[in-house]
Amino acid sequence: MQKIIALGAGVVLTLAPVVAFAQSAQPPSSAPSAAAIPDDTINKAGAALHDVAQVKQKYLGQMEQASPAQKQTLSAQANAEAVQAIQSHGLSVQQYASVIRTAQNDPQVKQRLLSAADRGQ
Fold first, then answer.
1. What residues contact 113, with CB distance under 8 A and at least 6 apart?
2. Quick one: how far is CA 94 from the chain centroid?
3. What gap in Å lies between CA 116 and CA 121, rounded to an integer?
4. How far apart are CA 22 and CA 17, in angstroms?
5. Using an 8 Å Cβ cutoff, are 117 and 50 in contact?
6. pTM of this prediction?
C-alpha cells in the first residue's frame, strides 16, 4: 500500500496538464464531501489510480534518461495513457481529479481510495 501512496502522490503531478485543462473547461466547484462520493465512484477512481500509478512507473525510468525533447514526448505519451486508463474505468478526468482532490483533504476518502487502489479493481 505504501507504494501506491507514494505513486499516488505523483499521479496528480503526472496529470497536471490534463487536470489543468479539465479545470479550465469547467466552472470551479467545491470538492464533494466524503459522504457525497458513492462507493462505486471511489472504486472506479481507486482502480484508475492503480492503473495511472502503473503508467507513471512505466515512464519514470525513461524520463530520467531522456533528453529534454524526449521528455516532452514521453510526458505527452504518459498523459495520454493516463487519461485512457481513467476513462477505461468509466470516469472523466474531471471526476477523477475531483476524487483525488477530495482525498488529499479528507482522510476518510483517502483511505477508501487507497483501499480501492490496493485491490486494483
1. 8, 42, 45, 46, 49, 99, 100, 103
2. 10
3. 7
4. 9
5. yes
6. 0.73
Q: Reduced to 3 DSSP states, what percent helix, strand and coil does the chain have, rounded to the nearest 5?
A: 80, 0, 20
Segments of the chain assigned E as strands: none
Per residue in 78-90, pLDDT (tens digit) is: 999 999 999 999 9
Give the tens place of pLDDT for each residue, 6-45.
Answer: 444 455 444 544 444 444 444 444 555 555 889 999 999 9
Determine how many CB atoms are found less than 10 A away from the CB of residue 115.
14
CB 52 within 8 Å of CB 86: yes
* CB distance 81 to 11 below 8 Å: no
The rounded mean pLDDT for the chain is: 77
Residues 6+ apart with CB under 8 A from 118: 1, 4, 46, 50
Grid cell at residue 65 = 534518461
